[in-house]
Design brief:
Blueprint: E1 9-14, H1 29-43, E2 48-53, H2 61-65, H3 71-95, E3 100-104, E4 113-114, H4 117-125, E5 129-133, H5 143-153, E6 158-163, E7 184-186, H6 187-192, H7 200-209, E8 213-217, H8 223-229, E9 235-238
Length: 247
């Protein structure tokens, strides 16, 4: 396929777990370097890129809240974990000669710019990769919801959700050998089937705006660029009932 991009502006959603590689915790230098190089390759196609990164490799607020910690406090700690990951990703991208800005939903002016929608749009228009940290800045909202919200705010053409599996399945492929992957789904099908690829709030936001969601395997080298170029990999969640097909 020619080196042309299907989308002009994307929101890439990375889980915190994606950064830890084969480690059980933290950030694996080799893994984050590879991800940064793949983002650079997409950037070199002329695509405007924004990123939302999770914090599950360092801290999961929901998990601690389930054990008795105040949910708002636990979620605030999780937001700080996403900021650590955002700064690490920024460092790796800038070592690849990609100009990058970290914008935080929580004010921490010594290390990140505050999130201002118009400024974020201006950054991506100028060719800078913008990494959104600290989720939405509010407890009880996941980084999936933050990804959907930021995608709408910057008018992204699509959300690319990078995962550890090839797409969306009818059941967990790690537990069920008979699991079948979907090529396409509608937003309402994702909700009705309780597929949990993103939380319901995030899916609903995308449904209201019609922003497509591409779910694909981050661990297959070159997949980010393949999705951007329009290759048929992973699963797309889209608004057209006629295009969506079951597994």
């Amino acid at each position: 396929m020619a080196d042309t991009a299907k989308y002009k502006r994307i929101l890439l959603k990375l889980s915190g777990e994606a950064l830890m590689g084969d480690q059980g915790y933290g950030i694996d230098p080799g893994t984050i370097t590879r991800i940064a190089q793949e983002i650079r390759d997409v950037h070199d196609l002329g695509v405007e890129i924004a990123i939302v990164v999770g914090g599950g490799n360092i801290f999961r607020g929901v998990a601690l809240a389930s054990k008795g910690m105040d949910r708002a406090s636990a979620d605030s700690m999780g937001m700080l974990a996403t900021t650590i990951n955002a700064l690490a990703l920024q460092d790796s991208l800038e070592k690849c000669n990609v100009f990058t800005r970290v914008m935080s939903a929580i004010e921490m002016n010594k290390i990140a710019e505050p999130f201002i929608r118009r400024r974020a749009i201006r950054h991506v228009e100028k060719g800078r990769v913008v990494i959104f940290a600290a989720g939405t800045g509010n407890p009880y909202f996941t980084t999936d919801s933050a990804a959907a919200l930021r995608a709408l705010e910057i008018k992204a053409d699509a959300i690319l959700k990078a995962t550890k599996v090839d797409g969306i399945y009818d059941k967990d492929p790690a537990k069920h050998a008979s699991a079948t992957m979907f090529d396409r789904l509608t937003y309402i099908e994702v909700i009705q089937r309780d597929l949990r690829v993103m939380d319901t709030s995030a899916i609903s936001l995308c449904r209201d705006s019609g922003v497509p969601i591409h779910v694909f395997n981050l661990h297959r080298p070159g997949n980010i660029a393949r999705v951007v170029k329009g290759e048929k990999i992973g699963t797309i969640v889209c608004p057209d009932d006629k295009q969506a097909v079951g597994g």
